Amino acid sequence: MGRRSRKRSIAAPPARPRRAAPDRSRVSRSEARDAAVRAQLRPLADDERPVSLLIAIVLCALLGVGNLVAYAAGQEVDGERPAFFGIALLSGLLLAPAAGMWAKRYWAVLGFQAILGITVILAALALLLSGNVAAVVVSVVMVGLGGWLFWKLVRILARIQMPAPPGGRDPIR
C-alpha cells in the first residue's frame, strides 16, 4: 500500500479579531473596595491610641521588663544561667518598640510586626513538634492571637503614615 501524499497549503492562519484596549475608566471591584477603605481611614490624632496599639505596647513592655526581672531573680534556662548581654539585648529589642509605639512611630510598629510575625511562624512550626495537648493549645493560641494583633496593626500602620490634613501635624515622623 502506498502512501498518499497530501498537499498542504501554506496559507496564513485565519486572522483573529483584535481585542479592544482595556477601558481604564472602569474601576474594578477590588479597586473600588480599596478606595472605600482608604476613604474611611483618618490619621491618628495626637492623643489617640487604638486598643490594638495599646495591647502591642503593653505586650512589648511586659516581655521586655519580664526578661530583666526573670534574670534578676536568677532564672535558669536548661539548668544554666543565660548571659546578661543576650537578656539585655532581647529586652532592649522589646522596650525600644514599646516606647516608639507609644510615640506612634511607624518604624516601631513595623519592627514589632516583624517580631510578631516571626513569633507566629515559630509557634506554627512548633505545632509539628508538639508532644502533648498543652503544647498544641499554647501554639494555637499564640498563632491565633498573634495573627489577630498583626492584622489589627496593619490598619494602624496605614493611619500612622497618612499625610496630615492641611494645617495639621507634621506627616513625617
Please characterize this protein's 3D structure:
With 173 residues, this protein is mainly α. It has a domain at 49-161. The protein is built from 5 helices and no strands. Helix 4 runs antiparallel to helix 5 (133-161).
Global structural class: mainly alpha
Whole-number mean pLDDT: 85
Number of strands: 0
Helix content: 55-70%
Based on CA inertia axes, which overall geometry fits? Answer: extended
Oligomer class:
single chain
Largest sheet: none
Detail the poorly predicted runs: none
Proportion in β-strands: under 5%
Encode the helix/strand succession as letters: HHHHH
The termini sit apart by: 87 Å
The number of helical segments is 5
How big is the Rg? Answer: 28 Å
Structural features:
extended; mainly alpha; about 170 residues
Short description:
This protein has 173 residues and is mainly α. It contains five helices and no strands. It has a domain at 49-161.
Topology:
Elements: H1 29-40, H2 51-72, H3 84-102, H4 106-126, H5 133-161
